[in-house]
């Protein structure tokens, strides 16, 4: 694929030397790079604490455990998200209660939340869809009123801000993904940012089997106790070393994504065959520009697969975010008897969209070529 949907960019010459030094040291976990990556991520987001984990999903799982979410509880969550967001809730034993989306942003419809809150509700989990920030000021008003925890799924939102404050800092915790197609990558991996010191201390134990002492704290090798339940969610040194170098380029990456988005958006903002999902950029909200989403009009819906195949044949990578709203995926629909009519807007976004790349792997010439390809394919539908 000439213009892939996602492709990591490794600018620094230090990636391989760092990896070789880790391999030769024999210290593949509990090393300096994990500590450094957490510290640098904390500086970038201005968080009180940053804790690296194996994925965004495992980070959310850990946090639900720490705050005591379990069977009988309910968690309000966006319906337009990756299934991992819901699976983290499901794995805690709680029930996910899904909210339909806003058509302009793809984010959950805040005005629908309060009617879903009851005595079982413990958490509101928001998803900053495609890097578009949710209005966390309004979310926090609701949370304070009903004494609820707030989690922010920032998997697609590294660099997104609200009133110049990074997303993930408004809730009780924010969760980031470093999968290869994200803003930065560690191969696989995730990060939790949070402010509560007690939660931080417990998460650090729980990501490493519940050990009361990490490897560097043990005066006698192999001597430790376990005072809480935990599994192995630690990020390895090689992953963390990649993350450290990726962070050096993150501001540049975000700038490229924004420029690429605007070039495509301005080329097609008057097209009738589709609308482009807007990314917020003003004094209050700043998007992280994960990708560009074309929402096809109803007349074009029957041609979507054909259009995708034509784009792919020209070397232009595509994706769908997401194939179905999570409550309408077989597992959740079968278990909880969710109805299509309750997620009408999320269905439109899922079923009518084609997502295109705007990542840092694409230069000015690539974007110009992509615009030509899109115009050539869609022009026949503009009549």
Can you describe what's shown?
The two termini are 30 Å apart. The protein has helices at residues 15-25, 32-45, 56-66, 83-92, 136-146, 197-206, 237-248, 250-268, 304-313, 330-336, 344-352, 364-378, and strands at 49-53, 74-78, 95-99, 121-127, 149-153, 161-162, 165-166, 173-177, 190-194, 274-276, 285-286, 292-296, 353-356. It folds into two domains: 15-99 and 107-248, Aspartate Aminotransferase, domain 2, CATH 3.40.640; 250-381, Alpha-Beta Complex (Aspartate Aminotransferase, domain 1). It is globular and about 75 Å long. The strands form three sheets. Strands 1-9-8-5-4-2-3 form a seven-stranded mixed beta sheet, sandwiched between helices. Strands 7-6-11 form a three-stranded antiparallel beta sheet, with no helix packed on it. The protein is of the alpha/beta class. It is built from twelve helices and 13 strands. Helix content is 36%, strand content 14%. A hairpin with a 2-residue loop joins β6 (161-162) and β7.
